[in-house]
Amino acid sequence: MGGNTRGGKSTKASRRRDKRHEMAEREAQNMADGNKLQVTEFLSVSELANLMDVSFAEVISKCMGLGIMVSINQRLDAEVIELVAGEFGYEVEFIGIDDATDDDEDEIEDAPEDLEPRAPIVTIMGHVDHGKTSLLDYIRNANVVAGEAGGITQHIGAYQVTTASGKKVTFLDTPGHEAFTAMRARGAKVADIAVIVIAADDAIMPQTREAISHSQAAGLPMVFAINKVDKDGANPEKIKEQLAGMNLLVEDWGGKFQSQEISAKSGMNIDILLEKILLEAELLDLKANPNREASGTVIEATLDKGRGYVTTVLVQNGSLSQGDTIVSGAHFGKIKAMFNERGQRVEKVGPSAPVQLLGLNGAPQAGEKFRMYEDESEAKDLANRRAQIVREQGIRTKKHITLDEIGRRLALGNFKQLNLIIKGDVDGSVEALSDSLQKLSTEEIVVSVVLKGVGQITESDVLLATASDALVIGFQVRPSLNAARLAEKENIEIRTYSIIYDAIDELKSAMEGMLEPKIEKKVTANVEIRETYKFDKATVAGCFVLDGKLFRNSRINLVRDGIVVHTGELQSLKRYKDDVKEVVSGMECGLSIKNYSDLKVGDIVEGFEEVEVKRTL
Ligand SMILES: Nc1nc2c(ncn2[C@@H]2O[C@H](COP(=O)(O)OP(=O)(O)OP(=O)(O)O)[C@@H](O)[C@H]2O)c(=O)[nH]1
Fold it and tell me: What family is it from (predicted)?
């Protein structure tokens, strides 16, 4: 600690320092003020008891009364803390790790006269192979105007170019919305504008739709780059028509969205695209104050053998200089050197500039905010405290919306919008489901579909759910293995249904706050079909149990490419020649399905049982 006692003058910086210390102290202790508790999430039972000045036994017994078994050192989540504190007559205010350890930067607003225009920050998204990389490469290579020495030689995660009209544009050099969404899932707001690349010789594809949904969810203005117009078979009008079909009317169709036909290969019209981006930026009136301490977002960070941690950051406000001390998440350091995207050393950079820097003591995650601190020991302190919180929270993840949570949030009265991501096996059912679910909107709560589409539930769906706090609804489809893992890690609820009415009914009940205990399918095994044989008209499959336990009397779904093609029962289950009652993970087995013979290599036989699931609250 230290630093706030020096000198008597109350400069802006020292006031900030004092405020920070106050915050830090508060965070360190968590505060009980009258009947109000200010706490960081995940207090332990004993800490909560201390704050309320009651014995931990009383807290434990209250928890038991709520049906939750806890031990004295167990950390409680926000919901439980709220309930238990309520029982003791306390109101709870949660302060997040950032609030708890952040300074008051957000409170010190820049005076309008200090603000200066800044360059727009642009992200490029689109379907695989539609030309994102080619476009980024073309702009990177072509836009070296006179006076801007050196080409862009380094891939540092972002680069800035000067257009023919002399204005600057910063591009995030991480094509694909995964990176973008992952950042957004962490709360980072980096890009100002999204360029959606669509190949004119193709069509609006699933990832195009996803990119559009991601941009809309983030509230980013979009510019459509209709690419590959040099190719035979390119049909830009068809793309515009398809966009119109999605309610996205481009300007030459009388709408508000800018679009530009380009060739990322030949460079045709890319200058016009850049001008359109700048036009969009003008409407946004982007400004920042270059004369203050720097703050911004980490774009990427790596460990370099010779140079230590190398971090690319995007300065979003203020200016960053060599020698400054910054903190990002749980890491800090004094900047030893800075390099631009041309590999040149720079001493100082201002708003919207990407820069690679050396000197941090670790690698912050992409999307993590960073901020400059005047006092190195203070920075160290802050980073260490954060590291401590991160360690404590390590096992916990953010709580996202679940079906059970809907009623509770409604009861709290501040739940205005329920976001859904809907995936289904065919377009018709997706549309039907999405229409019906949207119609469930009431005066209190709007049901909003942030993404709908055909096919398996993917990692990127789960990422979008994380970023937009959405529930994922699958109709006759399943999550991919990676998506399921990610959903578990991020606490995203994926509900899968095989009857549209069930989905509507459940959501409706949840929204009416009266979700009944229900019978739910619990998957007990995933078995992969590796060979098939025809045998007396029936098809017998040679299989491998990927995980879980498959029982002879299990009910099963046959899943092909993530889509449920049949639901029924087993006809037989064998190990070698013998009938068996069950097979477990790692075993080979033979099976056939009752009254069903269309088995294919690669299909997954998913065994499930039906269990009663209680609402948790
Ligand atoms: N003829 C023509 N080909 C193009 C154009 N733009 C890109 N391509 C080609 O299309 C292919 C895919 O381009 P990429 O830039 O790799 O596409 P991408 O969207 O970045 O693809 P991923 O990185 O796989 O998502 C490459 O073979 C490019 O050469 C264009 O304007 N005209």
Answer: Belongs to the TRAFAC class translation factor GTPase superfamily. Classic translation factor GTPase family. IF-2 subfamily.
